[in-house]
Amino acid sequence: MEAKTNGPSVNAGRVMDGPTNPMVTPLLTDLYQFTMAYAYWKAGKHNDRAVFDLYFRKNPFGGEFTVFAGLEECIKLIANFKLTEEEISFICETLPGSCEEGFVKYLRNIDCSDVEVYAISEGTVVFPKVPLLRVEGPVAVVQLLETPVLNLVNFASLVATNAARHRLVAGKSKMLLEFGLRRAQGPDGAISASKYCYIGGFDATSNVAAGRLFGIPLRGTHSHAFVSSFMSPDEILERSLHRSDGSSTCEDFVSLVQSWLSKIQWAKALGNTVGETNQSELAAFTSYALAFPNNFLALVDTYDVMRSGVPNFCAVALALNDLGYKSVGIRLDSGDLAYLSGEARKIFQIIEKEFGLPSFGKTSITASNDLNEETLDALNKQGHEVDCYGIGTYLVTCYAQAALGCVFKLVEINNQPRIKLSEDVSKVSIPCKKRCYRLYGREGYSLVDIMTGENEPCPKVGERILCRHPFNESKRAYVVPQRVEELLKCYWPGKSGKVREELPALKDIRDHCIKQLEQMRPDHIRRLNPTPYKVSVSAKLYDFIHFLWLNEAPVGELQ
């Protein structure tokens, strides 16, 4: 299956389709957004032009990078933001006190035609303090967007980052399958996880609904229940199987499997280590191969991996080979995965030599069973023969960290910069409408992200630029970039007439994410003790931040 194209489509007069989840409506917000909207309207401030930044303060999972995701769903929400009469009635009934008719009329006319959204491309590796989205528009409308936009970005970015971390530990050559549907936090958690794990570098999902919605490749075979549901080969009624080229038919595939099992049991190269295997398991494998001869992958740990599962798989795989089919491989769902994968590989290699079957020794081995970053890292250190990982619970639930912690802060209103102060410096916001750039060095790696005031000149290649820490006076460095990339692009221009960036296909976002990780210096993305990535401001913006800080902070008085 190919990943579907996201982005605008004409549908019933709308600019683009609505959010994937129909529950994402203007009511998916906190009550105080509507109470503030009413208060803004009463004060005559509802149309004041406001600028908000959406960003996070700390990278998740103890790492030093985050993958930005959720932008497409945000734009779909904004493109279709309109309150129905029923929703307006509910809001008026819910608000404390009485709701004036003028406010009701205002709510009827609310949309995002006066809103502009600038964002970093989805799938980009991002860092604390740098705005992921900048939302401009009438203050009341933009505040109504705050909660749903945070909801759409927080989990999406968290799970995409979790997936990217698993990809980095597993390595480029391994296939990663997302198996988390049954353990995810409800249907939306499952659908979102499948989508954003794919963006983060996973290859496929078991989630059929996500496969249909997003075109993500689907993978899945059978469970232990399928294996244990068989009692003996006598239960298999339809025993014939056509050759792969259709030239002839094997009338008794079950007998062919039994003959190959006998050959394996007597093979000298295996040292007579294969004895009697579980015949009900063999029946299950044979039945599954008859149903899916081109996609035969067996779960081999229902009874005994090495004494039964692997030999039974080999017997069925060799019988399929006689008819021109190539088996996919085995799945291990329990036990010592490093040891069992190694022993299974040895048997595959022996059979390849014993029976002259090219590439049988490279038969794929998939491992599952509550895998996580630590398990993958341990397997790498122990040495293993696993080709593919099926990962579920720890991946989709983001077990290692519950939330990313994105925030949505006012940075300018009516062209007046605003700052949010705190005794905790990490919670001090960076004021004013900003432009954000990524500066790259000679080796192609990104060196630093820098924020500047909107009207400052763009950093130039080969030009010496002073990059300053936003709050620490002593942290500063000159950078001479070899490439400059502007990060914020216009994804929703409203009626401003500006050119809008198109929303890319899901696979293109995934490819962008993988490329982004390749452009990061390895020490920034390593699992243990990663080096913090530098986020800076221009000298001019640094001076302005501290001027505004001193101007807004009340002066204490000692008595």
Automatic annotation (TrEMBL):
A Gene Ontology CC term for this entry? Answer: cytosol
Keywords per UniProt? Glycosyltransferase, Ligase, Magnesium, Manganese, Metal-binding, Phosphoprotein, Pyridine nucleotide biosynthesis, Transferase
Among CDD domains, the record links this protein to: NAPRTase_A
Write out the pathway annotation from the protein's UniProt entry. Answer: Cofactor biosynthesis; NAD(+) biosynthesis; nicotinate D-ribonucleotide from nicotinate: step 1/1
All copies of the Nicotinate phosphoribosyltransferase C-terminal domain together span 433-544
Mention one GO biological process in which this protein takes part, according to its record.
NAD+ biosynthetic process via the salvage pathway
What range(s) does the Nicotinate phosphoribosyltransferase N-terminal domain occupy?
A: 27-154
What is a single molecular function from GO for this protein? metal ion binding
The reaction(s) catalysed by this protein are: 5-phospho-alpha-D-ribose 1-diphosphate + nicotinate + ATP + H2O = nicotinate beta-D-ribonucleotide + ADP + phosphate + diphosphate
EC top class, in one word?
Answer: ligase
The protein's matches in Pfam families, at most eight in alphabetical order, are given as:
NAPRTase_C, NAPRTase_N
Write down the required cofactor(s): Mg(2+); Mn(2+)
Function comment: Catalyzes the first step in the biosynthesis of NAD from nicotinic acid, the ATP-dependent synthesis of beta-nicotinate D-ribonucleotide from nicotinate and 5-phospho-D-ribose 1-phosphate. Helps prevent cellular oxidative stress via its role in NAD biosynthesis.
Per the record, the similarity remark reads: Belongs to the NAPRTase family.
Q: Tell me which NCBIfam families the record gives.
A: NAPRTase_put (TIGR01513)
Q: What is this protein called?
A: Nicotinate phosphoribosyltransferase
